[in-house]
Amino acid sequence: MDHTLPRRSFLTGGLAGLTSLSLPGLLRLRTLAGEQQRERPTALILVFLHGGASHLETYDPKPHAPSEYRGPFDPIRTSVPGLDICELLPRHAQIADKFTILRSMVHTGFCHGIGQQQMFTGHDIRQFTPRPEHPDFLTVANYARRSFDRSLPNYIGATPIPYLGAAYLGPAYEAFAVNADPNADNFTVPNVGMQSDDRKSRIGSRMSLRKQLDRMQRTVEVLDDMQARDSFEQMAWEMLTRPEAQRAFDLGREDPRLRDRYGRNAWGQRCLLARRLVEAGVDLVAVTLAGPLCGRVQNWDDHAVNHHCFDAMKSRAPYFDQAVTTLIEDVYERGLDERVLVLVTGEFGRTPKISYAPDSASGVKQPGRDHWPSATSMLFAGCGINTGQVIGGTDARGEQVVERRISSGDFLATIYQHLGIDHTRIEFTDFSGRPIPIPVNGQPIAELLA
């Protein structure tokens, strides 16, 4: 397998004449490994809080902690007796019976890249690498559940999560990237569902020319299974021209009132897009909540040098609260909760003890919270799980897990089970040709399972 190919999305390259390795070439890489496609009864929407959200200002408030820990916000009661969350999330409080909070995720990754790779690959990496040494669970699932008889990719990122990737599986299994703002009036997804008959004709001619060149080349040497190549090019062609693909991305087809419910902003419309995509048959959708709505540094990395952490949380929380709760309600209202799991998490929590440092721009001393992988909170909703509960707990200051410690292996085993993947029986081949099992050592979280 050619692992020197560009790693990112099918979108950036387009088909560009089809004489270079583009969408058909990337799709063709999928024949080089793996098992046959299995049934896909379940799907996953991952809402990722890039930078790491504070557990104290979201799902694990500590109102009785000393002032140097607790922060300025109070807890509020929810629709589930005994389940309190931060006052910044009133919409969450209203629908707490539709989700479960896990407060006891623990790993050892103290920087963003290491934290994300430990959580999403299962590899207990301790040294930062910009790309993972093992494939993340989304790319593993894309590999295990791949299909070529569909008009949409199986894994879409809006936008893709940084520091992750397919590693030795190859770039064909990474996310189909949708980086544009779906709230923008001119939002389009390049090379999906082209409407111009003239453009279709031009690309169809290029595909025909490519096939003629291939026939000539076969008289000289055998490079590939040409029948398989034809099937991959047909899939690429269908993605480009079939109206189903364009409809899935067309938010204009939604009731304007529902779009308003999600929030007329990038986060709200990305979450709406995620629901549309799983409804259209996409198995894996990653929604990254980052960018201008997060504040000056455009993520949830609330160090004091970046910004006033409590001002930043107060500013971004309404957008987050609205988008996530509407997504959960929409999934339930449409009956998608029987097969779709909604997962909300960052790569770690934040230090319970508040730190103070000068703002890097103004020099004004202000509060912040730093990286804290010793206690991470997650939200789970849908897919028939047991909802309306809290799993695990941290101590009175939110520093250490004292009840039901969950490892990244336990988390990944849970996700793989939801996706119908037996991670104990899948083995890959790394760059050197060695067989490599999925590095997951854990058990599914039994309290979640209905």
Describe the structure.
The structure is a single chain. The chain is an alpha/beta fold. The protein has two domains: 1-32 and 194-241; 43-189 and 254-448, Alkaline Phosphatase, subunit A (3-Layer(aba) Sandwich). The chain is built from 13 helices and 18 strands. The chain has helices at residues 10-13, 23-28, 67-70, 90-94, 112-121, 137-144, 197-218, 226-241, 243-249, 256-262, 266-279, 309-333, 408-418; strands at 43-48, 75-77, 84-86, 99-105, 155-158, 176-177, 284-288, 340-345, 349-350, 355-358, 365-368, 371-372, 376-382, 389-391, 393-394, 401-403, 427-429, 435-437. Helix 5 packs across helix 13 (408-418), helix 7 (197-218) runs antiparallel to helix 8 (226-241) and helix 11 (266-279) runs parallel beside helix 12. The two termini are 41 Å apart.
List keywords for this structure.
single chain, 450 residues, alpha/beta, Alkaline Phosphatase, subunit A, 2 domains, eight-stranded mixed β-sheet, 15% strand, globular
Give a quick precis of the structure.
By secondary structure, the protein is an alpha/beta fold. The chain has 2 domains: 80 residues; 342 residues, Alkaline Phosphatase, subunit A (3-Layer(aba) Sandwich), CATH 3.40.720.
Share of helix among residues?
25-40%
The amount of beta strand, in percent, is: 15-25%
**C-alpha-based Rg, rounded:** 23 Å
Number of E-state strands = 18
Determine the number of helices (DSSP H or I, runs of at least 4 residues): 13
Structure classification: alpha/beta
For the largest sheet, list the strands in their spatial order: 6-5-7-1-8-13-4-14
Per the CATH scheme, the topology name of the largest domain is Alkaline Phosphatase, subunit A
Taking the alpha carbons of the first and last residues, their distance comes to 41 Å
Largest sheet: 8 strands, mixed
Count the domains.
Answer: 2
